Task: inverse folding
């Protein structure tokens, strides 16, 4: 299976430590050195595209990934589980997600992922596969996809609240209207 990475210091991004003879960070979108899974190090945060979103998992070695199955099982909620790279990718490209300063590197990231196997509390907005991977690597449960999806809704809500506040400030106060 071929992979590519959005590489900024492949070894650092893959939570594997320093490289030998690295010429420094490469720009985002640079493919891995030889484009195969042998480049993947323990604790890599993997991402693969799906229709309308991206799917996330943690590489645990030997061609296996821990991921939140989520709604992968015919729109039924699925648990955190171990799958092969092929099952994870569904035949699509796999990229490595860059983390600027991971809290958990290599084996500790894998241990965190493995500690949640069998968990079945998937929620698209609050506990999805990206939340899971962020928790494994960064120690914080968050999802940039969800933030992007909710941004327009939040913006409309803020605009409505602002308009309501403006409208209410232009109304005469009851005290001023009392005889």
Result:
């Amino acid at each position: 299976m071929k992979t590519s990475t959005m590489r900024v210091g492949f070894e650092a991004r893959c939570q594997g430590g320093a490289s030998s003879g690295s010429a420094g960070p490469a720009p985002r979108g640079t493919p891995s050195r030889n484009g195969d899974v042998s480049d993947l190090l323990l604790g890599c945060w993997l991402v693969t595209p799906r229709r309308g979103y991206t799917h996330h998992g943690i590489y645990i070695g030997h061609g296996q990934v821990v991921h939140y199955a989520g709604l992968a099982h015919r729109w039924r909620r699925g648990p955190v589980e171990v799958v092969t790279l092929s099952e994870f990718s569904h035949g699509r490209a796999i990229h490595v997600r860059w983390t600027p300063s991971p809290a958990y590197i290599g084996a500790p990231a894998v241990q965190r992922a493995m500690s949640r196997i069998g968990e079945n509390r998937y929620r698209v907005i609050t506990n999805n596969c990206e939340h899971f991977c962020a928790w494994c690597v960064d120690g914080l449960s968050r999802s940039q996809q969800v933030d992007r999806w909710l941004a327009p809704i939040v913006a409309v809500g803020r605009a409505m609240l602002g308009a309501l506040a403006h409208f209410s400030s232009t109304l005469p106060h009851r005290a001023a209207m009392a005889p």
Helices lie at 10-13, 85-89, 107-115, 129-138, 144-170, 174-177. Residues 144-170 form the longest helix (27 residues). The domain at 10-142 is CATH 3.90.1720.10 (endopeptidase fold (from Nostoc punctiforme)).
